[in-house]
Design brief:
This protein has helices spanning 40-44, 54-61, 98-107, 118-126; strands spanning 4-12, 16-18, 49-53, 73-76, 92-94, 112-116, 132-138, 146-147, 158-166, 170-177. With 180 residues, the protein is of the alpha/beta class.
Length: 180
């Protein structure tokens, strides 16, 4: 099976994934009365497991809804020593370098990974371990916050795959890593 590490994320027009306070309310600034999932379910059918950082995990744990994932969830954290009891069996803590963690997950049969969370995505990009980017742009300027992309050792080339517009206002663009 082909190994792919994928990102599915929304940004503001100015490239932020959370506002200055870490808030996500701006994600819901476009009315969505029919609860269009903007390709999320289709994307989730393309992945075997989810890899996220501690901050994203804690954010998800704070949502006022049942656990939202049916796929295995792996949490990267240097500071977290264990998964809170109420999430035992729903998420697993993994430690080590990004390449080692990917290797271990691939060995366990998880070949198509959904990479989620700003720091986690940035760290995977630094290791050149992102194959697909699906970026949905919410038409709002936040003027600051948590950026999706950080510094890289070298430029990474991606190529356009496709685009789609949801709710007549929200563009989503798919890119794939261009490798020699």
């Amino acid at each position: 099976m082909e190994k792919r590490n994928k990102v599915f994320i929304a940004t503001s027009l100015d490239g932020y994934i959370a506002d200055k306070d870490g808030g996500l309310d701006w994600l819901f600034s476009i009315p969505n009365p029919d609860q269009v999932d903007m390709g999320y379910e289709s994307f989730m059918s393309e992945v075997d497991a989810i890899v996220m950082g501690r901050v994203t995990f804690e954010t998800v744990c704070g949502f006022d809804c049942p656990w939202p994932y049916t796929k295995p969830v792996f949490i990267l954290s240097a500071s977290l020593e264990s998964i809170p009891e109420e999430f035992t069996g729903k998420a697993e803590l993994v430690k080590g370098t990004i390449p080692k963690i990917v290797e271990q997950l691939n060995w366990r049969g998880y070949h198509r990974l959904y990479i989620d969370g700003g720091n986690t995505i940035q760290n995977f990009l630094k290791e050149d371990l992102i194959d697909d980017l699906i970026i949905t742009t919410i038409p709002v300027l936040l003027g600051g916050g948590y950026t999706l992309f950080g510094d890289l050792v070298q430029p990474l080339d991606f190529e356009y795959v496709s685009s789609k517009v949801y709710l007549d206002k929200v563009p989503q663009i798919r890119y794939k890593r261009k490798r020699d």
